[in-house]
Amino acid sequence: MSQATEAGPATARPARLPPTTDDGFVGWLRKNLFSSIGNSITTIVVVAFLVWLITWFVDWALLHATFRAETGKDCAKSSGACWALIGEKFRYIFFGSFPYEQHWRPLFAIITMIAMLLLSSDRRMWNWRLAVIWPVGSFITFLLMFGQIHIPVTLIFLVALIAGLGGFLLRRDVADQGERVAYMALMAIGAVYLVLRILGVLPGLAIPIAPFSYVETGLWGGLAVTMILATYGLAFAFPYGILLALGRRSNLPLIRGLCVGFIELIRGVPLISLLIMASLMLPLFLPSGMNFDKFLRAQVAVILFAGAYIAEIVRGGLQSLPKGQFEAADAMGLNYVQKTVFIVLPQALRVVIPPLINTFIGFFKDTSLVLIIGIFDFLSTSNQALVDPLWTGYPGEVYLFAAAVYFFFCFSMSRYSKYLERELNKGTQR
Amino acid sequence: MAVRNLDAAPTVIELDQVNKWYGQFHVLTDIDLQVKQSEKIVICGPSGSGKSTLIRCINRLEEHQAGTIAVSVDGRRIELTSDVKNVEAIRKEVGMVFQSFNLFPHLTILDNLTLAPIWVKKMPKKEAEDIAMGLLRRVRIPEQAQKYPGQLSGGQQQRVAIARALCMRPQIMLFDEPTSALDPEMVKEVLDVMIELAGEGMTMLVVTHEMGFARSVADRVIFMDRGEIVEQGPPTEFFANPRNERTRTFLSQILHH
Q1: In chain B, whose CA is at the least distance from the CA of A345?
Q2: Interface predicted TM-score of the whole assembly (ipTM), two decimals
């Protein structure tokens, strides 16, 4: 009955390459665009449409466009686009009502913010460097925008106290003797000053830094406003949303209830209503004399709103983690904070990069809603540019221009999301 | 394996009348168990018999609802209560290896090993890395230190998981079906590491169906069914004349096929 199994060659076969299928350009065309009659017809129709559309656009936007004109009437002589309008209005569109001769300030503020964002997007900066980049970048940005900043001395000592306390608590076990002494010195100096200040021994001084003329937030406008609202809105909403998401999964019912309540409440109302509430109703509840800046209130509203959305996205990431990851971390004796920081969040956030960036893009555009409470962001300054009676009749050009600027930022974020996914998954996949 | 005198050794794990329920389901019933230092115990039984739950109670991945569990750490008897301090003290001394490895996929092999020593034991990074590299050599994959778990085979991943647990210098090791998720040709490389570890005097509790391993390494084999310890004894006796009917049925199912 027994039958010898057929033995293969004793030595391994030489490796064979897959068959090559390169048919050249014509072959590719035939295979992909003209494989059947229906396919060929579709190809021809779509190509004809694209050609028509592109010729029309080039004709309108370039060949027959007016690039220089005194008023809108000059544009009417030609059938093309009136780009002269953008040339006339671009400073208002970018900088709003900021004093005209000071426009270089918001320009450099925008450049500073872009530099700050570009630096933070590099993964090699994700360490203590971020803690330098953001305070320095923000200080420059707001000094340029306000023109003058008065730093209370108390704040400096408060920062010293917090830095010393944080360093002491977080690095207690790894720091050497000198570093520990430095932390304790920082804490002591901060604590002593604050106690003396509270007792009224020391006067409440402020360090005035006033290189430029003061410009109040009511005069801010254009791209700088959009960028500040979006950048700081998301920069604060991101950690805040993570905390909310963690809180929603907490074992403590009170914390969990609070986080669920907050998330559902904020998600249940439109952003506009939150903005109106922040600008009109909040002042009614505050004690008289106490007044927060309208811009700051809008900023807080954006943070609260974005935070609730980010929290739900992060929660999705947290739930995607296998239970074994938590168990392994527990079994090794990691405590909650260590487990969350080293094991849970790095994996959870990686999973949610696409929806997270999607939300970021959405909120970048949603900042234009602040128009409703009289803050002039980029879209509303674009709108305002159309009001000039000398330049009526060319809204398309302005909106196209505004759309191009928005597209630049949103597309950059989208590409960054792709890059980040690839970068973070390097090596972790087979 | 040479017969060793375990009677003189101190008891390191003590379970006394431990009970646990999942909802209405009684998963552990009146479990009594004493484990001596450097004793190797193999726990077997049909699926759902509570054997995994039993060892997971020892480092409190599962919480028992009645009875007491105590672990001796450096001669000090620590009882498992809801006191987080006790739980942390025990987890530091008890290493665990899982069926599905549970390596951290976003960290390199070396970082997987050094994370807990650095942050839980507050060990300097350099020292932790030296210990980790030593352990990776012992499990015979030092060249993989800079790779990520996803780039390794199942057998290699499980050896890394063993090294990761050992990196904390535990006194006790728990193995929860360490070879069940492996392809057959990789089972041996993991068992070899475990046999070596047993030879060095580690206290081990192993949930497994590898009866060859039980025969050659175990000091005691425990058979569990429906949440109870049905029978236990030295492997020679256990395999030669199982006393209980349920044990005989189980052994015939897994040994003769």
Answers
A1: B106
A2: 0.92
